[in-house]
Design goal:
The structure holds two protein chains of two kinds. Chain A is mainly alpha-helical. Chain A is 75% helix and 0% strand. Chain B is globular and about 45 Å long. The chains are: A mainly alpha, B alpha+beta. The structure holds iron/sulfur cluster (SF4).
């Protein structure tokens, strides 16, 4: 089916891929600089020892997990309208996991020793388990997505062993984001992370981000390829985004209550740092207010059935949701844990050009893979709907 | 009774090969090849340190200089990415949130040496995905620079800021190379090792030996007769951030 997919793509699509390749190249170049000099070329420091890379990793684990928001209703609740896009969700998950692994890789001081995680398995380490569940999730989604699509292409039912794998992938999706949250929430002395709310909040925000992205992807697919996920599917997804976004914002506000009503300094520091600055450190104030504004905008547009039902407003709401949560989980949350440092001081962090270049490269690689997957998917759909096998 | 180690030529060769491939840390190999411990090696069930901060004058860095010199700790140009094993902090910084504005002024000015606490329940060891940082039976929390992948999970997990990462190549920034101790590559984490390489040959920690005020005591926490236990029994002492449950083993007389 691969060769057909490639032959049917147009020049516009090929130009898009070329542009992405260029960005991937820039990312690769930046990474070569980092490999040569070490992580000293990033904005990270003794005090803020994780930054944009680990934030992005965390964010994309959420995107990967959120595929379950179309797979679960379709397979467990027989929500037929999601039938056309479960594969879209599964491929999104596969791509997101690849991005996650790359974000970890570029964050390592000694990438050549990555395999040490497997050579010296340490079941006491959450990072070890994160690697196990992420790899498992990758193969589950790759296998099931591919087999389901192939079945559609050949017109022959997918083999029996695919179904159980799909069912296993559902709880597995929850596990990847839970384990990722446990990386943070099990550490003593980082009071911003040390809350049982971290894992539930991660899941809620992932289930807002992922479906919001799926809506944007569905609308883009319809516009550029003519493949229509169906209005009903988009409507249902928008309801999922609405619930998940409301729960996320609720949990964030609950954190504010605990910190500021209890008045425990170490619980207030990170939140103060984000919104008003702390001890002269204020590099996160601007993006935190952008985050808050976008959350509010998204909530207003989503909660109002009129705007939610309108495609333009829905696009704005989904984009706001995605960007807001990309700020929160993609960088702020990670840095917040390091405010203040163990000596009660604030060390500022801001990513350098090299760091941003590498991150852009990985995003471009994700978009590249996704574009290829989706062009394949659309071709198969088209042919099967026209009745050509 | 432990059986004495005997190593056949074959196993030694195998081990050497493995070390060359980076599978076995070179340090382990040295110990194994030697077969038995140094006759003068200092041993304890649970190494610990007591620092009498009352004896630490403002601005003193003698222990830091001694330690950094024997361990090839670099002086990195960017203080945000510096490498430190032991260094002075003010009382307020060493014990944040446990002070008030009206404390004894002399105490405020004292240089409290801070270092890895070799915690009895170390969170850094718990989170390490490769066991590159581990706790020895004698309570020393060690780093294997040859196994560390540089994920920096331990730095996030250490509540004492005791760990440093080699953001850049440290070698050009070592003021005076000590050929007896290894240098580190960029990309790995390091920290105080309670001078395990000195204990192994019968010497006490470098910081303790260098201190002109004799402010640092070192010994076995499990031995009631050790200088450490005697100091703990006869002084009011503090540990940093006890509420976190890490059970630090560096104690401060204040
Ligand atoms: S002080 Fe930090 S690095 Fe040292 S043992 Fe305790 S947690 Fe680990």
């Amino acid at each position: 089916m691969l060769e057909h997919a490639w032959n049917e793509t147009g020049p516009r699509f090929k130009a898009w891929l070329a542009a992405l390749l260029l960005l991937i190249g820039i990312g690769g170049f930046c990474y070569s600089i980092q490999l040569g000099t070490g992580l000293g070329v990033t904005g990270m420091s003794r005090d803020v020892s994780w930054g944009l890379y680990i934030g992005q990793f965390t964010f994309f684990v959420g995107v990967a997990a959120s595929a379950v928001m179309v797979v679960l209703p379709y397979y467990l609740h027989d929500v037929k309208v999601f039938g056309r896009i479960t594969v879209v969700g599964e491929f999104l998950a596969v791509t997101a996991v690849i991005m996650c692994i790359l974000f970890i890789l570029v964050d390592l001081g000694m990438p050549s020793r990555l395999l040490n995680i497997m050579l010296y398995p340490s079941p006491g380490s959450v990072l070890f388990w994160d690697m196990v569940v992420l790899n498992g999730y990758f193969f589950l989604n790759l296998l099931t997505g591919w087999k389901v699509l192939e079945a559609e292409y050949t017109g022959i039912k997918a083999p029996d062993w695919v179904k159980p794998l799909i069912y296993i992938a559902i709880p597995w999706a929850f596990s990847i984001h839970t384990v990722t949250a446990f990386i943070y929430s099990g550490i003593p002395g980082r009071d911003f992370w040390l809350t049982a709310l971290t894992a539930p909040k991660f899941l809620a925000s992932a289930f807002a981000t992922g479906p919001a992205l799926l809506i944007l992807i569905s609308l883009a697919l319809r516009r550029f390829t003519g493949f229509d996920a169906g209005q009903e599917a988009v409507r249902r997804l928008s309801i999922i985004v609405t619930y998940a976004m409301s729960i996320t914002v609720f949990m964030i506000l609950a954190e504010f209550f605990t910190a500021f009503y209890s008045q425990v300094p170490s619980h207030m520091y990170a939140l103060k740092y984000f919104f008003v600055g702390l001890y002269g450190g204020n590099s996160f104030v601007l993006i935190s207010w952008i985050f808050a504004t976008l959350c509010l905008l998204a909530l207003i547009l989503l909660l109002n059935p009129k705007t939610r039902g309108d495609e333009t407003w829905l696009t704005v709401a989904c984009a706001s949701t995605f960007i807001a949560l990309a700020i929160e989980k993609g960088i702020s949350f990670t840095v917040g844990g390091f405010i203040t440092n163990p000596f009660g001081r604030v060390t500022e962090y801001w990513p350098t050009a090299v760091e941003v270049g590498i991150v852009v490269g990985i995003w471009a690689l994700g978009a590249f893979l996704l574009s290829l997957f989706y062009s394949l998917f659309v071709t198969v759909k088209r042919r099967s709907e026209r009745g050509i096998a | 009774m432990k059986k004495p180690l005997s190593i056949s030529r074959r196993t030694l060769l195998k081990a050497t090969g493995a070390a060359a491939l980076g599978i076995i840390p070179a340090g382990t190999l040295l110990v194994r090849a030697a077969g038995k411990p140094h006759p003068k090696a200092l041993q304890a069930k649970n190494w610990a340190m007591v620092i009498n901060a009352k004896l630490c004058p403002p601005g003193c860095r003698i222990c830091q200089e001694a330690c950094h010199k024997v361990h090839n700790v670099p002086n990195m140009p960017d203080p945000k990415q510096d490498v430190k094993w032991i260094w002075p902090e003010s009382y307020n910084s060493a014990f944040p949130y446990e002070t008030h504005p009206y404390t004894d002024q002399a105490n405020e000015k004292r240089a409290y040496p801070v270092l890895c606490n070799h915690c009895e329940n170390p969170s850094c060891v718990r989170v390490c995905p490769t066991k590159a940082t581990f706790q020895r039976p004698d309570g020393v929390v060690m780093m294997d620079y040859h196994r560390c992948i540089g994920c920096r999970f331990c730095m996030a997990a250490c509540p004492y800021g005791a760990r440093s990462f080699n953001f850049k190549d440290p070698r050009p920034h070592i003021p005076q190379l000590n050929p007896a101790y290894p240098t580190r590559t960029p990309g790995v984490v390091e920290k105080c090792n309670f001078c395990d390489e000195r204990l192994a040959v019968g010497q006490m920690p470098a910081c303790m030996e260098a201190c002109p005020a004799k402010a640092i005591l070192f010994g076995d926490l499990n031995d009631p007769a050790s200088p450490v236990r005697q100091a703990l029994a006869s002084n009011v002492t503090l540990q940093r951030k006890t509420k976190l449950g890490t059970r630090p083993k560096v104690f401060y007389i204040v």
